[in-house]
Amino acid sequence: MAKCGDKKVGLIRLDSGFFQQDILQYLEEKKLNYIVAAKFNQPIQRFIHNQKGWIAIDDGIEICEQQYKASSWDAERPMVIIRQKIKERPQATGRTLRLFADDEIHRNYRYSAYITNLEFSCAEVWRLYRGRGDAENRIKELKYDFGFDSFNLKDFYATEAALTFVMIAYNLMSIFRMFVLQEKTQKTLTTLRYRVFAIGASFEDLSEIIVQNIRRITGFDRVMVYRFDTDGCGHVIAEDKRENLNSFYGLRYPATDVPEPARRLYKLNYIRMIPHVDYQWVHLPNHPVSDEPFDLSFCNLRSVSPMHVEYLKNMGVKASMSISLLKDNELWGLVACHHYQPKYIPYEIRAACEFLGKVMSLHLVAKAEQEDLIYQMNLKDRLSKLFENLSQIVDVADGLEENLTSLQCLVDSGGVALCFPVTILLSQTPDFPSPKASLHKLRTPR
C-alpha cells in the first residue's frame, strides 16, 4: 500500500489467503473499502450450514447476508454468502461444505463467502468481487500477450512510450471484443489471433467472416465485399443477406458505378453512411473571407452524389454504409451494406466497423498476395513438369496429345484445342461443325 503514495484506492479485493484479523483491521484503520473471500475452515462451514434466510436472485443462485464473528475477532463483520445449484449451473465456481458432504441439500450446491465493509446489496458485492478474476486475467494478458513484464521499469522515456503504445493496442482489442465479437467470454489476444486474425483460412473464407460479423453487429439486410479489378470494375466476392433477398454474389459491375471522385473520398474516409436516402441536403455558404467552398472531404455529414442516391433508390435500398478496404493507400475494395428501411448506426458501432475495416484490410490484402504467390509457385511447378514430359518425346504433337490435361491445368481452362497443319487435337471443347473452318474464322481479321 505504501507504493500507492497519495493515490486514492477505491476497493481492495483479496482472496482467502488474506482472510486474517490483522489484515482486516489494517484495512479498516486505513478506511479502505474491501471484499475478502472467506477461508472455508470448520467454523465457517458450520456457520453457512446453519443459515436459513436464502433469497433466490437468479436460476440456481441464492444469496444471504449475516453478521459473522470469528473467535479471534474483536467485533462482528458482515458476511455475504452465495450458493449455486450444481445441476442448474454446472460451471459454477465455489467450494463444497466437506463437513456436511453427506447432507442431501449441501452436496447439491457450491458456496462462496465474503467479508466486506461495503454498504451494498449482497448481489452487488458478489458482482464486484467476481471482477477480481477478470482483472487478474487482463494482467496476465498484458504480461504474456503484450510483453508487459519485459519493459525497463526505471525512469526511461522509451519505456513510457512503449507502455503507452501497448495500452492503446490493448484498448483497441477491447473495443473489438466488445462491439465486434460481442461474446460473453473474454477472449485473450492469443485466442483472437488464431481464431479471427490468423491468415490460415482461404481468401473466400476471410471475406465471409467479414460480411457475417459486420452484418451481425450492424443488423443490415445485406452486407457484401466488393473487390475492384485492375480496370476499376467491381466484383462481389462475398455476401451475407436476409434469406428472402436475391443474391448479388458473383455479380460484376462496371467501373463507372464508382466514379473517380467517389473513389477519392473512399480513400480519405474509411466509413461513410446514408441513414435515409430521402434526406434533404442543405446548402453550405462559401467561406466568408475567400469566398471558396469549404472542403468537406473528411466530414461525415457531407452530402453524397445525387446519382449515387438515385442508384440506391433504383435498387430499393433505403439506407447504406460502406467501409473502405485499402492496399498501399489505394482503394482495393469496399464492404457495402444495404438496408431496405431507413437505418441509423450509432457511433460506437461505426467505430468498431471502421476498426474492423482497417484490420481486415491488412489481412485480406495479405491473404490475396499469399494466394497469388501460391498460384505462381504451382504454375511454375506445372510448367516444369510439362517441359520435363515434352523433353522425352521426339514428336511435339504426340507429346502435347499425351499431356493435354497438363496443358489444360496450366492455363486453368475448361478445354484445349491444338491445331497443326494436319491434325487438330480437342479436349473438352465445344462441338465444332468443322474445326478447320472455325479455326479459319478465328484467324480472319474483322
Describe this structure in words.
- There is one protein chain.
- This protein is an alpha+beta fold.
- The chain has three domains: 2-144, Transposase Inhibitor Protein From Tn5, Chain A, domain 1; 199-281 and 297-370, GAF domain (Beta-Lactamase, 2-Layer Sandwich), CATH 3.30.450; 393-443, no CATH class.
- Helix content is 39%, strand content 19%.
- It contains twelve helices and 14 strands.
- The protein has helices spanning 21-29, 42-49, 122-144, 157-181, 189-197, 203-218, 260-268, 306-314, 347-390, 396-402, 404-410, 435-443; strands spanning 12-14, 34-37, 55-58, 61-68, 77-85, 109-116, 222-228, 234-241, 252-253, 271-274, 319-327, 330-339, 416-419, 424-427.
- α6 (203-218) packs antiparallel against α9 and α9 (347-390) runs antiparallel to α11.
- The longest helix is centred in the last third of the chain and has 44 residues, at 347-390.
- The radius of gyration is 34 Å and the shape is elongated.
